[in-house]
Amino acid sequence: MTVSTRPRGRPKKVTLEEIADAALALLDREGLDAVSFRRVAGELGVSHMTLYSYLDSKEALLDAMVGRALEVPELTDPHGNWADSLREVLVEIHDALVARPGVAQLILTQSLDGPWVLAIRDRLLALLRPNGFTRAQAVDAISVVVNYVLGTALVEASRGSGASPKAFGLGLDLLIDGLRRGR
Amino acid sequence: MTVSTRPRGRPKKVTLEEIADAALALLDREGLDAVSFRRVAGELGVSHMTLYSYLDSKEALLDAMVGRALEVPELTDPHGNWADSLREVLVEIHDALVARPGVAQLILTQSLDGPWVLAIRDRLLALLRPNGFTRAQAVDAISVVVNYVLGTALVEASRGSGASPKAFGLGLDLLIDGLRRGR
DNA sequence: ACCTGAACACCGTTCAAGT
DNA sequence: ACCTGAACACCGTTCAAGT
């Protein structure tokens, strides 16, 4: 008793996910300049105009790529140890961006204030609020650490992943210790 | 006895400085996408091909714009108070980028590791070294604060200069105090 | 050396048309 | 609804030619 979930009518040639994935593959392989409607469509074997059935503009494509490439990290905070949870999430974000410089470049030109960054801020707010931070303190604290993580990740991604990845952890500890103390 | 410093031959129609300034005006007015060889040349009343007499490529134009727009701050350190001098310079950099979002965008896409950032790192190194930092400590410390300042300035410049400029100073104090303590 | 227009190989996007 | 090619208004860059 298999229930058909196949949509009526002629099957689509592509899906939005396939478009985003093809664009991300191109980004990883050849950098942001290679990501064009024509190139992406070529990878998928469709006309470049087909993409306009799924996306309003190139900006929409870049947004879809960010949404597809980056998960918003879960925040479990199992031991109620907010400082450790905070550190863990920030390291996770940092590592994800450094490991994929093309995606970092994408964030950078596209959405330093997009939904992905907003979602992260929200999760961190939920983490800090029950731990002795007023709302205003938490908002400021989140700005400080998020900006630090983004800045470090973008700088590291923009050079050949050159210098001192351990300096990142050092600064992160200074910030988190300072926040705990000043709470 | 005026000595003529005027060069021989037909006078040039433009100078490299005029090209960079016209491009920066365009950047401030209409954003990075408006900065093209054709638009800049149009502003100056010359053929777009004339720019190739002064610049090898568009990348060279963007580099020239950064060099023209941003001074590398002086570092006097008059009272030998390195922490205050450090803070002052970092605030200066932050404010310069936030005040001119187009230039921040330029840094971002072009030269997060360009000569301007390198020069700043050098000056900060000269500031920290005589104040109880080993070379390795100083290099890490500079990475931390520079990445923080760039991250904050880029995020603030990318939104409509929206949220909490005071959070910047808060994080900066946490970092500098932590560095002093851990030195 | 400096300046130029034509041409080439690309873009994103609009339009009109096909299924 | 989904897909398409032609066309438009742009790019950066190469080339050949002018002064």
Q: What key attributes describe this structure?
A:
mainly alpha, 0% strand, DNA-binding, homodimer, disordered N terminus, 183 residues
Describe the structure.
The structure is a homodimer of 183-residue chains. With 183 residues, chain A is an all-alpha fold. Chain A is built from 8 helices and no strands. The first copy, chain A, is elongated. Mean pLDDT of chain A is 89; it is low at 1-5. Chain A has helices at 16-30, 37-44, 58-69, 82-99, 101-110, 115-128, 135-158, 165-182. Chain A binds chain B through residues 108-109, 112-113, 139-140, 143-152, 154-155, 158-159, 162-164, 166-168, 170-171, 173-175, 177-179, 182, and chain B through 108-109, 112-113, 139-141, 143-152, 154-155, 158-159, 162-164, 166-168, 170-171, 173-175, 177-179, 182. Chain A binds a DNA duplex (19 and 19 nucleotides) through residues 9-10, 12-13, 36-38, 46-50, 52-54, 57-58.
Layout of SSEs?
Two copies of one chain form a homodimer.
Chain A: H1 16-30, H2 37-44, H3 58-69, H4 82-99, H5 101-110, H6 115-128, H7 135-158, H8 165-182
Helix pairs in contact in A: 1-2, 1-3, 3-5, 4-7, 4-8, 5-7, 6-7, 7-8
The structure holds a DNA duplex (19 and 19 nucleotides).
Write a brief caption for the model.
Two copies of one chain form a homodimer. With 183 residues, the first copy, chain A, is mainly α.
Structural class of chain A: mainly alpha
Low-confidence stretches of chain A: 1-5
Query: Span between N and C termini of chain A?
Result: 59 Å
Largest interface: A-B, 35 and 36 residues
